[in-house]
Amino acid sequence: MIEVKDLHVSYGEFLAVKGVSFTVNEGELVTIIGANGAGKSTILMALMGLRSCRKGQILFDQTDITTLPAHLRARQGMAIVPEGRRLLPDLTVEENLRIGGYIHTDQAIVTEELERNFTLFPRLKERARQISKTLSGGEQQMLAIARALMSKPKLLLMDEVSLGLMPKFVDETFRIIAELHQKGVTILLVEQNAKKALAVADRGYVLETGHIIHSATARELLNNSEVKKAYLGGV
Ligand SMILES: Nc1ncnc2c1ncn2[C@@H]1O[C@H](COP(=O)(O)OP(=O)(O)OP(=O)(O)O)[C@@H](O)[C@H]1O
Fold it and tell me: Which of 5, 65, 111, 228 can pair with 57 through a Cys bridge, CB separation 3.0 to 4.6 Å?
């Protein structure tokens, strides 16, 4: 579904992503793990068209989207759950969700997607008219995921969705990710919580200072002694 070839992304003169290549196939849950500052968020931003590539190529459904603006990537079927959620804090839960469905010209589809997300996240249904900044951190994270799903994406990009959540909500978030995967959503998950990410993923890539240093099935990475030592707390 997505093929990234020799991706380079920079901030001014600083090269944050240094020639990264990877794929995500339809229906897969793939994770990119790595330490702070490895370049994980930068890769997702470049995939969504929120940062331009200095060099390299991004193919989505076999079409070259390397220079396509973000809103057109959304129309082609990509959605992002950004780091820090980026909700519209003064709008209600339902209003945030409707904004997530803005690409649908048919309002019946928006209503259908709203119902689908309320079924997936009953807590959001209960709180449909609540102003989103008054939600708990975990609920805000649910809303950010649901908002991305409103566009019915073919590919869901998720950036550090467990960051800053209490353990209870971290488990709940990973349960939802696994459920979405089971339902057939293709997911690229960027995570610092390597253990949890690899537990739900099919395959993974390990990113270190802008380079991919390992690529394998999630199971292989979980059993790789180097990965264990560096990212899984030596377990
Ligand atoms: N707007 C920016 N301007 C300059 N440098 C940046 C900017 N955003 C990120 N960087 C740098 O790019 C590198 C990669 O950052 P990025 O946020 O992609 O890493 P990350 O792997 O997602 O880290 P984290 O897990 O801490 O979010 C870091 O060295 C960071 O300081």
Answer: 5
Q: In degrees rounded to 5, what are phi and psi of residue 64? A: -75, 115
Query: So what's the pLDDT on residue 231?
Result: 84
Q: Determine what percent of the chain is predicted with pLDDT higher than 90.
A: 77
Give me the sign of the Cα torsion angle 202, 208, 209, 210: negative
Domain ranges within the chain, ordered by starting residue:
1-77+156-166+185-235, 84-152
Contact 202, 28 (CB under 8 A): yes
Mutate to test the pocket of ligand 1, among 7, 13, 14, 188 (most ligand atoms within 8 A of CB): 14
Protein residue with least CA distance to atom 5, ligand 1: 11
- The reported pLDDT for the residue numbered 70 is 94
Q: Tell me the whole-structure pTM to 2 decimals.
A: 0.93
* Options 3.20.20.370, 1.10.287.90, 3.40.50.300, 3.40.1360.10; CATH of 1-77+156-166+185-235: 3.40.50.300
In the reported structure, the alpha carbon of residue 195 is separated from the centroid of ligand 1 by a whole-number distance in angstroms of: 22
Under DSSP, is residue 191 helix (H, G, I), strand (E, B) or coil? Answer: strand
Cα of 197 to ligand 1 centre, how many Å? 20
Give 36 Cα–ligand 1 centroid separation in angstroms: 8
